[in-house]
Amino acid sequence: MPQSSRYSDEHVEQLxxxxxxxxxxxxxxxxxxxxxxxxxxxxxINTSIAPAQRHAMARSFADALQAxxxxxxxx
Length: 75
What we know:
This protein is an all-alpha fold and 75 residues long. 68% of the residues lie in helices and 0% in strands.
C-alpha cells in the first residue's frame, strides 16, 4: 500500500533529478553513489534526529529501502 506524503510528487521528483544530475556530472559509479548516499543518510540521522530515536529511524529507513527494492532482472 503506497504511503501518503506531506511532500508533493513534483517537489520530490525535482530534488531527485538534481541529485542524479550531480552524480552523473561526476560520472559517479554505482558503488560510490550508494556509499555517498548512505553517508548522507547517516549524517542526517546523527545530526537531525534525537539520540533516543536514531536506531528506530535507521531501522524504519532500512525497512522502507528493503520494501522498495524489486527482484526483477532489469538494470
